[in-house]
Write a structure and sequence with these properties.
Elements lengths: L18 E5 L3 H13 L3 E5 L2 H8 L6 E5 L7 H9 L11 E5 L4 H10 L3 E4 L7
Parallel strand pairs: 1-2, 1-3, 3-4, 4-5
């Protein structure tokens, strides 16, 4: 019988080299997302706050933003509002995913109206 590690499929080639910025105040969540995405061939950078994320975006343009909504101080809504005010060349049109424990239908609608393209409820599964 083959060793279980030999049964692991390689990451899909279309994900290799994709850059993602993960913003979450919880270190464990940042770590889990970083591992899940990295195992898929995605290059991940993390930020623990809105201000840290905005500082990173001044010098680097990831392909996708994944942000928690409920963070102390400035939340994910504040982050997406500030990003959407940027020009496209500054990252203002980056595709954004809201990752949140707020999972009601009205929460999903609010996330989409705020400027995110997708709403994913916590806890996140690797298949999502």
């Amino acid at each position: 019988m083959p060793h279980p590690s030999s049964l692991i499929l390689p990451p899909p080639p279309f994900l290799k080299g994709i850059t993602v910025l993960v913003v979450d105040d919880e270190a464990d969540t940042r770590e889990v997302l970083s591992v899940i995405l990295s195992e898929s061939g995605i290059e991940v950078t993390t930020a623990a706050s809105v201000q840290e994320a905005l500082k990173l975006l001044k010098s680097w343009q990831p392909k996708i933003l994944v942000s928690d909504i409920g963070m102390p101080g400035e939340d994910g809504y504040s982050l997406i509002r500030q990003i959407r005010r940027l020009s496209p060349t500054e990252g203002g049109s980056i595709p954004a995913v809201a990752l949140t424990a707020y999972s009601r239908e009205e929460d999903r609608k609010q996330v989409l109206l705020a400027g995110f393209q997708m709403h994913v409820s916590k806890p996140v599964e690797a298949t999502e």
